[in-house]
Amino acid sequence: MRRHGVRGRLADDRGSGSVLALGIVCAVLCVAAGGAAVDGAAAAHSRAAAAADLAALAAADVASGRAPGVPCETAGIVARANGADLTRCDQAGVIVEVTASTPYLGMAASVSARAGPPEGG
User: Fold this and answer.
1) Residue 104 lies in a domain
2) Domain presence at residue 22
3) Whole domain around residue 28: which residue ranges?
4) Which of 62, 96, 102 is nearest to 79 (CA)?
């Protein structure tokens, strides 16, 4: 005859493997979700960087007279075409500096770029 008192139930290991497996699955899912968030942030930064570079180059072409238009307006059009918002555009002669940003998880990835002739040349 077996007795099942409070001590007997607490000392029983049945079901502990299921709890351990559930804990491991939850930990793996949390790590995977964190990795996906980091990958998404890197992709948003890359989009913003490409948009800023292209917007600065297009604006510098306009500023130098190689293309028609207004430099900062052209930069805004190019940034939007590449999935970013133009948040800053400064022109000093034929040198143009822009900042483009893309939203991600309630934050923004912002990147600045400069285009124009090389300095000292």
Assistant:
1) yes
2) yes
3) 18-115
4) 102
3-state helix, strand, coil in the chain (%, to 5): 55, 20, 25
Domain count across the chain: 1
Backbone angles phi, psi at 82, to 5 degrees: -105, 15
Neighbours of 94 (CB within 10 A): 17
Task: Read off the pLDDT of residues 29-52 as tens digits, 9 standing for 90 and up.
Answer: 999 998 888 888 899 999 999 999
Q: Is there a domain that residue 35 lies in? A: yes
The whole-number pLDDT of residue 8 equals 59
What CA–CA distance (Å, rounded) separates 58 from 108? 23
pLDDT in tens, 92-114: 999 999 999 999 988 899 999 99
User: How far from 45 is each of 33, 38, 41, 42, 106, CA to CA, in Å?
Assistant: 19, 11, 6, 5, 14
The answer to whether residue 95 sits within a structural domain is yes
